[in-house]
Design a protein that fits this description.
Elements (H helix, E strand, L loop, with lengths): L5 E4 L6 E2 L2 E2 L3 H9 L3 E6 L6 H10 L9 E3 H13 L3 E5 L2 H9 L3 E2 L7 E4 L7 H12 L3 E4 L5 E4 L2 E4 L1 H9 L7 E2 L5 H11 L6 E5 L2 H10 L3 E5 L6 H7 L5 E3 L2 H8 L1
Parallel strand pairs: 1-4, 1-13, 4-5, 6-7, 6-8, 8-9, 9-12, 13-14, 14-15
Antiparallel strand pairs: 2-3, 10-11
Helix pairs in contact: 1-10, 3-4
Length: 257
Protein backbone atom coordinates (compact mmCIF):
# COMPACT_ATOMS: atom_id res chain seq x y z
CA UNK A 1 0.00 0.00 0.00
CA UNK A 2 1.39 3.37 -1.01
CA UNK A 3 2.15 5.81 1.78
CA UNK A 4 -0.80 8.06 2.66
CA UNK A 5 -0.75 11.32 4.56
CA UNK A 6 -4.45 11.26 5.48
CA UNK A 7 -7.20 8.75 6.18
CA UNK A 8 -10.84 9.68 5.65
CA UNK A 9 -12.96 7.29 7.72
CA UNK A 10 -16.66 6.59 7.79
CA UNK A 11 -18.03 6.09 11.33
CA UNK A 12 -20.97 3.67 11.46
CA UNK A 13 -19.80 0.25 10.34
CA UNK A 14 -16.12 1.28 10.50
CA UNK A 15 -15.57 2.53 14.06
CA UNK A 16 -18.88 1.71 15.72
CA UNK A 17 -22.03 -0.29 15.34
CA UNK A 18 -24.90 1.40 17.13
CA UNK A 19 -23.65 2.49 20.55
CA UNK A 20 -20.68 0.12 20.70
CA UNK A 21 -17.13 0.37 19.32
CA UNK A 22 -16.30 -2.36 16.84
CA UNK A 23 -13.67 -4.83 18.11
CA UNK A 24 -10.17 -3.37 17.86
CA UNK A 25 -11.36 -0.06 16.41
CA UNK A 26 -10.00 2.09 19.27
CA UNK A 27 -6.41 0.93 18.87
CA UNK A 28 -6.68 0.82 15.07
CA UNK A 29 -7.70 4.48 14.96
CA UNK A 30 -4.74 5.44 17.15
CA UNK A 31 -2.40 3.50 14.86
CA UNK A 32 -3.73 5.35 11.81
CA UNK A 33 -3.18 8.67 13.62
CA UNK A 34 0.53 7.87 13.95
CA UNK A 35 0.73 7.56 10.16
CA UNK A 36 -1.23 10.64 9.05
CA UNK A 37 -4.14 12.98 9.53
CA UNK A 38 -7.51 11.35 10.27
CA UNK A 39 -10.86 12.92 9.39
CA UNK A 40 -14.18 11.22 10.07
CA UNK A 41 -16.73 11.67 7.27
CA UNK A 42 -20.22 10.50 8.14
CA UNK A 43 -23.56 10.78 6.39
CA UNK A 44 -25.26 10.77 9.80
CA UNK A 45 -26.96 14.17 10.08
CA UNK A 46 -28.59 13.62 13.49
CA UNK A 47 -25.62 14.99 15.46
CA UNK A 48 -23.47 18.09 15.07
CA UNK A 49 -19.70 17.83 14.71
CA UNK A 50 -19.31 18.55 18.41
CA UNK A 51 -21.96 16.02 19.45
CA UNK A 52 -20.49 13.37 17.15
CA UNK A 53 -17.04 13.88 18.68
CA UNK A 54 -18.50 13.78 22.19
CA UNK A 55 -20.34 10.54 21.45
CA UNK A 56 -17.14 8.95 20.17
CA UNK A 57 -15.11 10.29 23.10
CA UNK A 58 -17.58 8.66 25.49
CA UNK A 59 -16.90 5.37 23.70
CA UNK A 60 -13.16 5.83 24.18
CA UNK A 61 -12.10 7.29 20.83
CA UNK A 62 -9.61 10.16 20.73
CA UNK A 63 -11.57 12.46 18.41
CA UNK A 64 -12.05 16.24 18.32
CA UNK A 65 -14.92 18.16 16.64
CA UNK A 66 -12.40 19.56 14.15
CA UNK A 67 -11.71 16.02 12.92
CA UNK A 68 -15.39 15.37 12.13
CA UNK A 69 -17.34 16.17 8.96
CA UNK A 70 -21.03 15.25 9.03
CA UNK A 71 -23.58 15.56 6.22
CA UNK A 72 -25.30 18.20 8.37
CA UNK A 73 -22.09 20.27 8.34
CA UNK A 74 -21.70 19.72 4.60
CA UNK A 75 -25.29 20.86 3.98
CA UNK A 76 -24.82 23.97 6.10
CA UNK A 77 -21.56 24.89 4.33
CA UNK A 78 -23.00 24.18 0.89
CA UNK A 79 -25.92 26.54 1.46
CA UNK A 80 -23.73 29.26 2.96
CA UNK A 81 -21.12 29.12 0.20
CA UNK A 82 -23.55 28.84 -2.73
CA UNK A 83 -26.50 30.96 -1.56
CA UNK A 84 -25.37 32.87 1.53
CA UNK A 85 -27.24 32.92 4.86
CA UNK A 86 -30.67 31.44 4.17
CA UNK A 87 -34.04 30.94 5.82
CA UNK A 88 -34.46 27.21 6.40
CA UNK A 89 -36.94 24.73 7.82
CA UNK A 90 -35.60 21.34 8.88
CA UNK A 91 -37.09 17.89 8.51
CA UNK A 92 -34.47 16.21 10.64
CA UNK A 93 -32.92 16.14 14.08
CA UNK A 94 -31.13 18.55 16.40
CA UNK A 95 -27.65 18.10 14.92
CA UNK A 96 -28.84 19.37 11.54
CA UNK A 97 -30.52 22.39 13.09
CA UNK A 98 -27.39 23.18 15.09
CA UNK A 99 -25.04 23.06 12.12
CA UNK A 100 -27.35 25.22 10.02
CA UNK A 101 -27.55 27.80 12.80
CA UNK A 102 -23.76 27.76 13.32
CA UNK A 103 -23.28 28.46 9.60
CA UNK A 104 -25.43 31.60 9.85
CA UNK A 105 -28.74 30.29 8.54
CA UNK A 106 -32.05 31.22 10.18
CA UNK A 107 -34.54 28.57 11.29
CA UNK A 108 -38.05 29.68 10.33
CA UNK A 109 -41.55 28.15 9.94
CA UNK A 110 -41.97 26.19 6.69
CA UNK A 111 -44.11 28.81 4.99
CA UNK A 112 -41.27 31.36 5.46
CA UNK A 113 -38.45 29.05 4.36
CA UNK A 114 -36.31 29.53 1.29
CA UNK A 115 -35.02 25.98 1.75
CA UNK A 116 -36.40 22.79 3.23
CA UNK A 117 -33.43 20.76 4.48
CA UNK A 118 -34.09 17.06 5.04
CA UNK A 119 -31.98 14.54 6.92
CA UNK A 120 -32.59 11.46 9.00
CA UNK A 121 -35.51 11.95 11.41
CA UNK A 122 -36.24 9.12 13.82
CA UNK A 123 -39.47 10.88 14.82
CA UNK A 124 -40.78 11.34 11.29
CA UNK A 125 -44.55 11.84 11.37
CA UNK A 126 -47.44 12.64 9.08
CA UNK A 127 -47.64 16.09 10.69
CA UNK A 128 -44.01 16.82 9.83
CA UNK A 129 -44.64 15.77 6.24
CA UNK A 130 -47.61 18.15 6.15
CA UNK A 131 -45.36 20.99 7.31
CA UNK A 132 -42.72 20.12 4.74
CA UNK A 133 -45.35 20.04 2.01
CA UNK A 134 -46.60 23.46 3.10
CA UNK A 135 -43.11 24.89 2.62
CA UNK A 136 -42.50 23.16 -0.69
CA UNK A 137 -45.84 24.25 -2.11
CA UNK A 138 -44.94 27.78 -1.01
CA UNK A 139 -41.86 27.72 -3.23
CA UNK A 140 -39.11 26.49 -0.92
CA UNK A 141 -36.29 24.55 -2.54
CA UNK A 142 -35.34 21.11 -1.24
CA UNK A 143 -31.87 20.10 -0.05
CA UNK A 144 -31.08 16.61 1.29
CA UNK A 145 -28.17 15.65 3.51
CA UNK A 146 -27.97 12.11 2.12
CA UNK A 147 -29.94 9.19 0.67
CA UNK A 148 -28.61 6.36 2.84
CA UNK A 149 -31.33 3.73 2.73
CA UNK A 150 -30.28 2.10 6.00
CA UNK A 151 -27.70 2.25 8.78
CA UNK A 152 -26.15 -0.64 10.74
CA UNK A 153 -26.97 -1.31 14.40
CA UNK A 154 -26.34 -4.30 16.70
CA UNK A 155 -29.99 -5.26 16.08
CA UNK A 156 -29.54 -5.14 12.31
CA UNK A 157 -30.22 -2.53 9.62
CA UNK A 158 -32.64 0.32 10.39
CA UNK A 159 -34.16 2.93 8.02
CA UNK A 160 -31.85 5.80 7.13
CA UNK A 161 -32.26 9.32 5.79
CA UNK A 162 -33.26 7.91 2.42
CA UNK A 163 -36.60 6.94 3.92
CA UNK A 164 -37.26 10.58 4.85
CA UNK A 165 -36.10 11.88 1.47
CA UNK A 166 -38.26 9.26 -0.20
CA UNK A 167 -41.34 10.44 1.66
CA UNK A 168 -40.91 13.91 0.13
CA UNK A 169 -40.20 12.45 -3.31
CA UNK A 170 -43.40 10.47 -2.94
CA UNK A 171 -45.23 13.81 -2.71
CA UNK A 172 -43.62 14.92 -5.97
CA UNK A 173 -40.61 16.85 -4.63
CA UNK A 174 -37.19 15.33 -5.44
CA UNK A 175 -34.27 17.15 -3.79
CA UNK A 176 -32.47 19.79 -5.81
CA UNK A 177 -29.18 18.60 -4.33
CA UNK A 178 -28.03 15.72 -2.12
CA UNK A 179 -24.76 16.84 -0.52
CA UNK A 180 -23.66 13.78 1.48
CA UNK A 181 -21.68 10.81 0.21
CA UNK A 182 -21.31 9.89 -2.65
CA UNK A 183 -21.51 13.54 -3.74
CA UNK A 184 -17.98 14.86 -4.36
CA UNK A 185 -18.88 17.92 -2.27
CA UNK A 186 -18.66 15.87 0.94
CA UNK A 187 -15.25 14.41 0.07
CA UNK A 188 -13.86 17.76 -1.05
CA UNK A 189 -14.81 19.30 2.29
CA UNK A 190 -13.26 16.37 4.19
CA UNK A 191 -10.04 16.72 2.18
CA UNK A 192 -10.05 20.46 2.84
CA UNK A 193 -10.36 19.78 6.58
CA UNK A 194 -7.48 17.29 6.33
CA UNK A 195 -5.42 19.74 4.29
CA UNK A 196 -4.40 16.93 1.93
CA UNK A 197 -4.91 16.42 -1.85
CA UNK A 198 -7.01 13.39 -2.88
CA UNK A 199 -4.09 11.34 -4.22
CA UNK A 200 -2.45 11.42 -0.76
CA UNK A 201 -5.58 10.28 1.12
CA UNK A 202 -7.25 6.90 1.61
CA UNK A 203 -11.01 6.61 2.06
CA UNK A 204 -12.08 3.83 4.43
CA UNK A 205 -15.77 2.92 4.44
CA UNK A 206 -18.29 0.11 4.65
CA UNK A 207 -20.64 1.15 1.81
CA UNK A 208 -19.63 0.69 -1.81
CA UNK A 209 -22.29 2.99 -3.25
CA UNK A 210 -21.46 5.93 -0.96
CA UNK A 211 -18.00 5.74 0.66
CA UNK A 212 -16.16 3.97 -2.15
CA UNK A 213 -17.92 5.37 -5.22
CA UNK A 214 -17.81 8.95 -3.97
CA UNK A 215 -14.12 8.78 -3.06
CA UNK A 216 -13.26 7.33 -6.45
CA UNK A 217 -15.03 10.25 -8.12
CA UNK A 218 -12.58 12.72 -6.51
CA UNK A 219 -9.47 10.62 -7.24
CA UNK A 220 -8.93 8.91 -3.88
CA UNK A 221 -7.79 5.34 -3.34
CA UNK A 222 -10.29 3.36 -1.29
CA UNK A 223 -10.55 0.57 1.25
CA UNK A 224 -13.79 -1.32 1.85
CA UNK A 225 -14.15 -2.80 5.34
CA UNK A 226 -16.56 -5.72 5.69
CA UNK A 227 -17.63 -4.77 9.22
CA UNK A 228 -20.67 -2.79 8.10
CA UNK A 229 -23.15 -2.96 5.22
CA UNK A 230 -21.43 -4.02 1.97
CA UNK A 231 -20.14 -7.54 1.30
CA UNK A 232 -17.63 -9.01 -1.15
CA UNK A 233 -20.39 -10.23 -3.46
CA UNK A 234 -21.68 -6.64 -3.74
CA UNK A 235 -18.48 -5.56 -5.51
CA UNK A 236 -19.36 -7.50 -8.65
CA UNK A 237 -23.09 -6.86 -8.33
CA UNK A 238 -22.67 -3.08 -8.13
CA UNK A 239 -19.61 -2.83 -10.35
CA UNK A 240 -17.76 -0.70 -7.79
CA UNK A 241 -14.23 -1.98 -7.14
CA UNK A 242 -12.29 -0.66 -4.13
CA UNK A 243 -8.51 -0.47 -4.14
CA UNK A 244 -8.47 -2.85 -1.16
CA UNK A 245 -10.98 -4.99 0.73
CA UNK A 246 -10.26 -5.94 4.36
CA UNK A 247 -12.34 -7.51 7.14
CA UNK A 248 -12.23 -4.46 9.42
CA UNK A 249 -10.23 -1.40 10.51
CA UNK A 250 -7.73 -3.38 12.62
CA UNK A 251 -6.90 -5.46 9.55
CA UNK A 252 -6.16 -2.28 7.60
CA UNK A 253 -4.00 -0.91 10.42
CA UNK A 254 -2.03 -4.17 10.51
CA UNK A 255 -1.53 -4.12 6.75
CA UNK A 256 -0.10 -0.62 6.99
CA UNK A 257 2.50 -2.00 9.41
Amino acid sequence: MREKRAFILDVDGVLVRGHQPLPGALSALEKLKTRGRVVLLTNNSTRSRAATAQRLQELGFNVSPEEVVTSAYVAARYLAEKFGPSRVWVLGEEGLRQELSLAGHTLVPPEEARWIVVGMDRELSYQKLCLALRGLLGGARLLATNRDATFPTPEGLLPGAGACVGALEGMGFPPEQVVGKPNPIAFQIALEVAGIPPEEALMVGDRLETDILGAQRVGMETCLVLSGVSRCEDVQRLGITPTWVVPDLPALASRLG
